[in-house]
Write a sequence for this structure.
């Protein structure tokens, strides 16, 4: 389980069919960070260890009463 | 006061909106609210003093390291080369080389220095990635904000060279904004940059993501001899009386040791002290003679002080001396050896120590530890005995331990230092223990001169001191061998809850009397005493069980934190006329003692003492002779049966002090302590000044109150309990907990969406940044009995006001998800990973879950919706966890938290859910005058009454709320805010501004009249239903309303059926488990009294533990009927069938008498319990 080189050797029956990269925001410097599953949580710019999930791009609509 | 009242009340100026906007847009490098930062000063200063000393005093931790007794082991080797060891400090007593020879090689350990680094983290793999971390990161990640603790451990073999090694001592929690914090010197701008509050003033620790504060505690005033008359003293043994004197001596490292001198009816005095929580009673004379090489004559002269005429005194001293002679101890050496033999096991000291050395060490560690010189220790003990004799003779009264005069503050830094010291000493002891083990085992590796062996021992003896302190801060429990001379062992730490800003502030100012006193039946400790004037707020204390025990410092009260250099002071006093103490010198019995920080430094006549005190104060205020401004000059005059006279000077840290105006000098800023204040003439207002008597005057009468009490508008118009209630309710208000809301992830935050600045505010409002954290809404309030829904403190909200967002709030709940704790094996390879795995695209969980297994930010969550998902690589399946609810909410933010170990993928997340909380019927509101009420209706706007100008109230309250509570302040606020709203200016509501000559109603009435309103604040109103004018004019104005955090949504409890207790089958209790509310005995009584039998049966049987059971009519038992398989049943029985089982009575062996009845299940349970005790219960069943 060496996360230093994640794309290496997808073990048989690995669940996540395609490693989907997600973009998160660094809590400290605000930069976008593309993080793949199993990658450590670190901002590439400043090394901060807290990342925020971006607000969804899907339409958010609720019943207004 | 008249001078203030004659001129019109000063206006507070503008609301400062533009200025505030400017600062917010471009935060500068200067803090806007210096007063705010001084509130947490006692916490921060005391923490700073741990690691940073001044020119005049060492840091507390270095003083503590010096105080640790020598730690020595011997290897007991026969042929030790250089066994002769002479300790540098006391060579004269260490001549016994022969004994040392037997012991073999000697190794001594000590800790030279301790260093705490600022919090750092290694973000990469190597040294170049080390970065500072800031408190916000610890908060976000639910970790602790801590720095690395390192100790330089030194050792020396025999007389050889000193070797040292720097040992890591784990990670020690660091106080935010202290000198070990990375935010220490940051400006507001940088604060914001590092995701802190712009005006964060620190003073707390971040422990597991929570902000923790070490509570301030009240302690006995240090280094002051207290006279005590306590009945429990008499129970100590035969001849013990109720009299004693006690002194809490404090070492330079701020640890303390209390000595008590007991008076026995046979003339003997016994000294009581503690070593590691064990109590020791030692005859006074032995200690006295062991300290100094004196004769009985000298002791007599010292104690009697020339007062040979006083037969009461001389007889007792004679008895004391006679009682000592049978022991046959004639010299100091004999006394020391006597003590050394007896205290050999109590003090763990080096083996080579002779009894006399042990005796000396005992005197150093336990007797009058605030002074180091033995002669001075002797003088302190003599002063204790003198006061004790005076107390017994009735010449002076006992001192009151509950009075602020005899109290000081126990600061966080003191407890922290004490714990550090003890754990560091424990570490050294641990090393010794391991080496001793090796020595006794005869291990071949055990070689003192081998540095490798020693360093291995250092590393092996688990030096994680940081973890111990971390445990203390996370639980508040004190795990200590010595108990740190404290009365309690738990409850030291509280969470600094950010309910709102008021609550947060109050945590830093609260000061507790001690858990020990909370259990006391008597109420004397809780009394409000005049001595606490100006130091403890008379208003701000909770009602109920902690009333009077949990106080708050007044807003001007400071805690002294410096240890100034006072070595020149005795000389100065001598130049003012004091005579010094000379051993064996007979001084005048009428003279009183002069004590400086518990050291007896001289004597002078009472007459001269007045003069010295006056001159000294003048010198102090005019900053001459380098006298510390917070020095206390407590002159206690000679009286008949009053406090023991003397001139007591205090310069020590931890005292409560406050600024007062000094009248007889141009430099008028004086700082007064709680001891001296009792004997000073301080006028409150101008009228109180008596020429030639009054020396000081208060800067303002509001100085006596805490910040919160000062926020109550016109509190001088209210009865005091109402102001107390407001102090409570202000802290429960839904307001603005923080400005950096986006950067916070507290467990629960209450936020008021549209807070306003109050129109009516006191002058302190701006000084303490309350405009930055609005706490309520200005509401139009009509005092009218209108709808019938406003009885008993209920209030009506205007429905349209509510719809426009009046008092709308939200609750932010955050949840930490840690997959490592959910994994079946901790510490192993990562088996759980956030993600959807092979989830279908159209799975219902996809409505709220993103592809990374985390919820969409902004998603609407209902109870049961998917909250997050992870894939279990071991079991090969996806686990979806659902949102528990029960309330609907919106995902506000999702944080991905990294870890120290950079090889591990995402394991920890934090999800914040926003739960909207619009005001509901049943939510609690209050004005700022202790007038709370529950919303009972949201009344349609069209049906609301309206004034001539068409204004409708936002809130209607019932006039019955006023006559019994007499909160006139609320009326005045209503008028003032109405006028302020019309004229567009804030109104000053600082108390004590108005008088009979210039009343508040006059002041604000004029303003109202100018705005075209009725002078008295009431106006004609029209019914919203009929449109007719009311016969009476209605009191209508603007009042600042707080929405309290007690909301029905958190409280309602309803159930029909649900969980039951498996044993009794009765409903469980507790809202969380959907339990019921107890329908108790008194409720039952009332149903019986009403004769509502059906209701009674419904509540107590059908809705509870209704059950049907078999009973045997023949024997009347409900225990004996049992199911019998039909094969074994009596074949003659009617229900006999091949397959069914049959109920038979076991005792009657037949099914004939079996019938079914309904019962409460507990009754059945009772029958079987009784059966187990061999008691048969029978029912008569027809």
């Amino acid at each position: 389980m060496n996360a230093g080189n994640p794309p290496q050797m997808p073990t048989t029956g690995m669940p996540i069919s395609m490693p989907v990269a997600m973009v998160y925001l660094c809590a400290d410097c605000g930069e976008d960070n593309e993080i793949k599953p199993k990658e450590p949580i670190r901002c590439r710019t400043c090394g901060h260890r807290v990342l925020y999930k971006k607000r969804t791009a899907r339409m958010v609509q609720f019943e207004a009463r | 006061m008249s001078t203030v009242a004659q001129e019109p009340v000063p206006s507070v100026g503008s609301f400062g909106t533009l200025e505030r906007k400017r600062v917010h847009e471009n935060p500068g490098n200067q803090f806007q609210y210096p007063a705010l930062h001084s509130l947490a000063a006692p916490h921060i200063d005391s923490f700073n003093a741990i690691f940073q000393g001044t020119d005049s005093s060492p840091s507390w931790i270095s003083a503590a390291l010096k105080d640790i007794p020598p730690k020595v082991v011997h290897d007991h080797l026969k042929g030790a080369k250089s066994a002769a060891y002479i300790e540098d400090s006391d060579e004269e007593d260490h001549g016994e080389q022969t004994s040392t020879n037997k012991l073999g090689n000697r190794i001594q350990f000590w800790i030279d220095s301790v260093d705490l680094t600022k919090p750092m983290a290694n973000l990469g793999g190597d040294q170049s990635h080390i970065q500072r971390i800031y408190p916000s990161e610890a908060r976000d990640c639910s970790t602790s904000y801590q720095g690395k603790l390192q100790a330089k451990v030194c050792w020396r073999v025999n007389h050889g060279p000193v070797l040292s090694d720097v040992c890591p001592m784990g990670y020690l929690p660091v106080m935010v904004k202290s000198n070990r914090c990375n935010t220490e010197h940051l400006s507001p701008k940088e604060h914001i940059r590092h995701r802190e509050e712009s005006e964060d003033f620190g003073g707390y620790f971040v422990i597991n993501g929570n902000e923790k504060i070490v509570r301030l505690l009240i302690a006995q005033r240090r280094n002051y001899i207290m006279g005590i008359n306590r009945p429990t003293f008499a129970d100590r043994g035969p001849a013990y009386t109720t009299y004693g004197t006690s002194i809490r001596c404090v070492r330079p490292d701020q640890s303390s040791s209390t000595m008590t001198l007991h008076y026995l009816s046979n003339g003997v005095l016994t000294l009581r002290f503690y070593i590691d929580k064990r109590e020791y009673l030692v005859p006074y004379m032995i200690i006295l003679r062991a300290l100094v090489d004196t004769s009985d004559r000298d002791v007599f002269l010292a104690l009697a002080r020339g007062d040979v005429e006083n037969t009461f005194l001389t007889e007792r001293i004679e008895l004391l001396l006679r009682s000592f002679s049978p022991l046959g101890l004639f010299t100091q050496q004999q006394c020391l050896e006597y003590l050394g033999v007896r205290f050999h096991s109590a003090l763990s000291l080096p083996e080579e120590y002779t009894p006399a050395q042990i005796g000396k060490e005992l005197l150093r560690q336990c007797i009058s530890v605030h002074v180091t010189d033995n002669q001075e220790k002797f003088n302190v003990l003599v002063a204790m005995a003198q006061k004790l004799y005076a107390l017994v003779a009735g010449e002076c009264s006992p001192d009151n331990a509950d009075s602020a005069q005899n109290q000081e503050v126990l600061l966080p830094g003191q407890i922290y230092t004490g714990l550090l010291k003890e754990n560091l000493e424990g570490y050294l002891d641990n090393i010794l223990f391991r080496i001793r083990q090796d020595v006794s085992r005869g291990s071949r590796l055990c070689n003192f001169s081998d540095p490798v062996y020693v360093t291995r021992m250092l590393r092996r003896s688990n030096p994680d001191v940081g973890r111990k302190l971390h445990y203390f801060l996370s639980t508040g429990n004190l795990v200590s061998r010595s108990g740190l001379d404290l009365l309690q062992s738990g409850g030291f730490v509280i969470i600094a809850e950010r309910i709102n800003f008021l609550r947060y502030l109050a945590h830093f100012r609260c000061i507790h009397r001690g858990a020990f006193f909370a259990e006391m039946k008597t109420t004397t400790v809780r009394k409000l005493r005049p001595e606490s004037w100006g130091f403890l707020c008379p208003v701000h204390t909770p009602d109920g069980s902690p009333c009077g025990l949990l106080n708050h410092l007044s807003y001007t009260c400071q805690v002294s934190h410096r240890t100034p250099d006072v070595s020149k002071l005795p000389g100065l006093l001598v130049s003012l006329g004091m005579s010094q103490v000379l051993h064996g010198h007979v001084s005048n019995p009428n003279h009183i003692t002069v004590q400086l920080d518990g050291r007896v430094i001289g004597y002078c006549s009472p007459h001269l003492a007045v003069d010295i005190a006056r001159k000294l104060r003048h010198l102090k205020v005019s900053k001459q002779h380098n006298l510390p401004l917070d020095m206390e000059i407590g002159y206690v005059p000679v009286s008949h049966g009053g406090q023991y006279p003397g001139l007591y000077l205090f310069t020590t840290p931890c005292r409560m002090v406050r600024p007062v105006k000094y009248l007889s000098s141009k430099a008028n800023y004086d700082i007064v302590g709680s001891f001296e204040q009792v004997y000073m003439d301080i006028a409150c207002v101008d009228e109180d000044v008596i020429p030639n008597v009054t020396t000081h005057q208060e800067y303002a009468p509001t100085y006596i109150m805490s910040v919160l009490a000062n926020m109550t508008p016109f509190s001088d118009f209210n009865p005091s309990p109402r102001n107390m209630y407001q102090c409570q309710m202000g802290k429960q208000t839904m307001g603005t907990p923080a400005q950096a809301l986006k950067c916070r992830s507290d467990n629960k935050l209450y936020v008021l969406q549209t807070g306003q600045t109050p129109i009516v505010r006191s002058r302190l409002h701006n000084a303490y940044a309350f405009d930055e954290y609005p706490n309520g809404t200005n509401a139009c309030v009509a005092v009218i009995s209108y709808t019938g829904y406003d009885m008993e403190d209920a209030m009506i909200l205007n429905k349209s006001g509510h719809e426009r967002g009046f008092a709308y709030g939200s609750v932010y709940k955050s949840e930490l998800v840690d997959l490592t704790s959910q994994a079946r094996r901790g510490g192993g390879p990562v088996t759980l990973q956030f993600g959807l795995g092979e989830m279908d695209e159209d799975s219902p969980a996809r409505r709220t879950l993103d592809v990374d297994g985390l919820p969409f930010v902004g998603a609407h969550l209902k109870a049961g919706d998917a909250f997050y998902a992870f894939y279990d690589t071991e079991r090969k399946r996806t686990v979806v966890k659902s949102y528990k609810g029960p309330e609907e909410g919106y995902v506000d933010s999702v944080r991905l938290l990294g870890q120290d170990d950079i090889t591990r993928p995402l394991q920890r997340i934090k999800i914040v859910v926003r739960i909207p909380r619009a005001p509901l019927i049943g939510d609690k509101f209050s004005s700022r005058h202790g007038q709370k009420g529950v919303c009972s209706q949201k009344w349609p706007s069209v049906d609301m009454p309206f004034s001539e100008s068409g204004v409708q109230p936002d809130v209607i309250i019932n006039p019955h709320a006023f006559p019994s509570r007499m909160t006139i302040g609320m009326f005045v606020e209503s008028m003032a805010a109405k006028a302020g709203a019309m004229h567009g200016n804030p109104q000053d509501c600082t108390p004590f501004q108005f008088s009979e000559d210039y009343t508040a109603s006059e002041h604000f009435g004029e303003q109202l009249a100018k705005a075209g309103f009725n002078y008295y604040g009431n106006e004609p109103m029209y019914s919203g239903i009929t449109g007719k004018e009311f016969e009476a004019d209605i009191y209508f104005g603007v009042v600042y309303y707080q929405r309290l955090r007690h909301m029905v949504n958190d409280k309602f409890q309803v159930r029909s059926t649900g969980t039951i207790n498996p044993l009794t089958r009765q409903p469980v209790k507790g809202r969380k488990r959907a339990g019921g509310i107890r329908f108790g005995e008194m409720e039952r009584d009332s149903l019986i009294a009403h004769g509502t039998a059906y209701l009674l049966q419904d509540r107590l049987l059908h809705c509870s533990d209704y059950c049907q059971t078999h009973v045997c009519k023949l024997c009347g038992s409900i225990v004996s009927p049992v199911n019998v398989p039909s094969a074994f049943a009596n074949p003659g029985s009617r229900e006999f069938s091949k397959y069914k089982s049959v109920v038979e009575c076991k005792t009657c062996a037949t099914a004939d008498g079996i019938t079914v009845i309904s019962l409460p299940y507990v009754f059945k349970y009772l029958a079987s319990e009784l059966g187990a005790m061999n008691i048969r219960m029978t029912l008569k069943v027809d």
In short: Confidence is low (pLDDT under 50) at residues 1-9, 82-100 of chain B.
